[in-house]
Write a structure and sequence with these properties.
Distance between the termini of chain B: 38 Å
Number of domains of chain B: 2
Largest sheet of chain B: 6 strands, mixed
Helix content of chain A: over 70%
Structural class of chain B: alpha/beta
Bound molecules: adenosine-5'-triphosphate, magnesium ion
CATH class of the largest domain in chain B: Alpha Beta
Oligomer: heterodimer
Strand order of the largest sheet of chain A: 1-2
CATH architecture of the largest domain in chain B: 3-Layer(aba) Sandwich
């Protein structure tokens, strides 16, 4: 098949407006300009997890003491729970950005409709918005990690690798959140999002090791993407590596891929009537 | 004359089972101002959005710059400026940022955008509001900003869907002047409007749409010539309802139209017609003598007034 033929085929399968190109950066640029009050949001996004960290990590940690990990070694509770909170905050940031903010721009701002009258396509919008949520999430996580370092909750410089984990979490939840938002009709539907993210937050080995569950519940927990995220982030933060971290990363990457494909397709169909 | 800029054959748009645009044909040449007229729901905006490559074509053929919007929408949109019926401005941004980021959507470098922004602010008479947030603008200012925004990329073809709706008379006349200058510079314009004077002033050629179909096509003068008489005598009687009263005017002029509040007589000379009316012993409550316009063309073609 010649390039022209394959391009023509592609055109028939996916209308050109939907195919992402190299223009997603303009969507990022737009968000950057619009985020005049960006740093205020940042600060809010930063303090919330720090408060949790102080209350649960330091407060509860004083009562709980050390915690024994699967490999038999033990760490202070605060050092155990901090990566869990970091992972959860990465999830929350990505979900917020890709659902609430995108829904607002979509329904009320008509920002996307205006973009689509230009060479920007629905694919660029999806990629740009996911990229933006990734960027914000990265800034949150990096700050969070720095605080952990200052509080002595990281074991080595390997902890920086935890940002790889938070980025994958952001990608997975950003893409799926974006896909989900294309199904939302009103603000009421957003209750569903909390309905999904809250149990993920509570039961994904964020506050305690998954080994406290009976085996069947452990199996259930492995279906939680945040569990994989938390494991990945914790592995780096505590400098304890395990081959299972590859699986964790793979799960998140697959989730991101599926989410992105659905988001791009649905967004294109919704915006172009 | 080269290849037409826009060419539609049996162009059809359906939303579910509802047909909004029903197999229309038209051709728009480079450099002309082409109008779409029609009452609410005629299918004007739907047609415009298909030309603008933001609404997939259901059936038929459409070529814009010789390209197929379904396959090469991005290439088409890169050469277009679009003023949608609803403003769709970025309410979170300032006036200047709205223009700038729109230029960036076309991947123009900032060095190119900057002088154009100043020029367009001047054009839209918004220089004083340049740092205001869009939500703080009046309706007419938003409209002007939307028009300015569509011109940031120096488009070859500008699509304007009711550009002057919401503008005060002075701003409308300023816009007509600007659009005329745009045309002088070689741009092609496609316009929809509900204002007959606007269409007569601006359009080289236009189509009248009704119920998704094209009812007539031609220059304003041709259409008036073909579908109306040179003059019109409007007669208001001292009655509640004018329906059924047209019989009283039998033999005067070539055609009559009855509206709720008046009767229109299509005649060669309004003065003579008025004398004939008086000769019949009819005493009108009020009369208006005027030249025929596109409003009359539309009334004749569809049996309805343009503005519902
Ligand atoms: N997205 C849509 N989904 C369903 N129906 C639509 C959609 N857009 C337009 N229509 C219908 O198509 C018909 C033509 O609409 P269109 O907006 O093209 O009319 P118009 O000529 O621009 O009217 P107006 O003068 O009011 O702007 C209308 O009956 C409208 O209800
Ligand atoms: Mg319309």
């Amino acid at each position: 098949m010649t390039p022209t033929e394959s391009r023509a085929m592609g055109a028939r399968v996916i209308p050109s407006v939907v195919r992402p190109t190299y223009r997603a950066q303009h969507v990022l640029e737009r968000n950057w300009i619009a985020s005049g009050a960006f740093w205020k949001v940042m600060i809010a996004g930063f303090f919330e997890p720090v408060f949790y960290l102080l209350a649960i990590g330091v407060g509860l940690g004083a009562m709980i003491g050390d915690i024994t990990l699967a490999d038999g070694t033990s760490v202070p509770y605060a050092a155990f729970v901090a990566p869990g909170m970091l992972a959860a905050s990465a999830m929350n940031a990505a979900v917020m950005e890709s659902t609430f903010n995108v829904f607002f721009k979509f329904k009320y701002g008509r920002v996307y409709q205006a973009m689509l009258a230009t060479p920007i396509g629905a694919g660029d919008i999806a990629v740009g918005e996911i990229g933006w949520s990734l960027f914000r999430g990265f800034v949150y996580s990096a700050t969070f990690l720095a605080v952990m370092g200052v509080m002595g909750l990281t074991e080595s410089w390997w902890a920086i690798g935890a940002l790889l984990g938070t980025t994958l979490i952001g990608l997975a939840f950003g893409a799926v959140g974006m896909a989900a938002v294309t199904f939302m009709r009103s603000w009421q539907d957003f209750d569903l999002i909390t309905f999904v993210t809250l149990p993920l937050f509570l039961f994904s080995a964020t506050f305690y090791p998954i080994e406290v569950y009976p085996p069947w519940l452990q199996t259930v927990a492995t279906f939680s993407p945040l569990y994989h995220g938390a494991e990945l982030v914790r592995g780096f933060a505590l400098g304890r590596f395990d081959p299972s971290m590859l699986t964790n990363a793979l799960v998140l990457a697959s989730m991101a891929t599926v989410g992105a494909i659905i988001a791009v397709r649905r967004l294109g169909r919704l915006l172009l009537s | 004359m080269g290849e037409p800029l826009v060419e539609a054959r049996n162009l059809t748009k359906r939303f579910g089972t509802f047909t909004a645009v029903d197999s229309v044909d038209f051709t728009i040449e480079r450099g002309e101002v082409f109008g779409f007229l029609g009452p609410n729901g005629a299918g004007k905006s739907s047609t415009m959005r298909m030309i603008g490559a933001t609404s997939p074509i259901t059936e038929g053929q459409l070529k814009v710059f010789g390209l197929d919007p379904n396959a090469d929408g991005r290439e088409i949109r890169a050469r277009l400026g679009v003023v949608p019926q609803e403003d769709m401005l970025d309410e979170e941004l300032t006036v200047t940022d709205n223009l700038t980021i729109y230029g960036r959507y076309f991947s123009l470098p900032r060095s190119v955008i900057k002088p154009r922004v100043d020029e367009l602010l001047e054009f839209a008479q918004l220089t004083e509001k340049r740092d205001a947030k869009v939500e703080a603008l009046s309706g007419g200012m938003k409209r002007r900003l939307t028009i300015a925004r569509a011109l940031i990329s120096n488009p070859e073809l500008v699509i304007l869907d009711e550009p002057t709706t919401g503008l005060d008379p002075q701003a409308r006349h300023v816009l007509w002047d600007r659009l005329y200058r745009l045309k002088q510079r070689g741009a092609t314009l496609i316009i929809t409007t509900h204002y007959m004077d606007e269409a007569e002033q601006l359009c080289d050629r236009l189509v009248v749409m009704d119920g998704g179909r094209i009812a007539a096509e031609g220059s304003p003068a041709e259409l008036i010539d073909r579908h109306a008489t040179p003059e019109v005598l409007e007669v208001r009687l001292d009655v509640d309802d004018h329906a059924g009263r047209e019989a009283d005017f039998a033999g005067i002029g070539s055609r009559t139209e009855v509206l709720a509040d008046r009767i229109l007589l299509y005649v060669e000379h309004a003065d003579e017609a008025l004398q004939e009316v008086r000769a019949k012993g009819i005493i009108p409550a009020a009369t208006v003598k005027r030249r025929a316009g596109l409003e009359d063309v539309f009334l004749h073609l569809t049996g309805r007034t343009l503005v519902d």
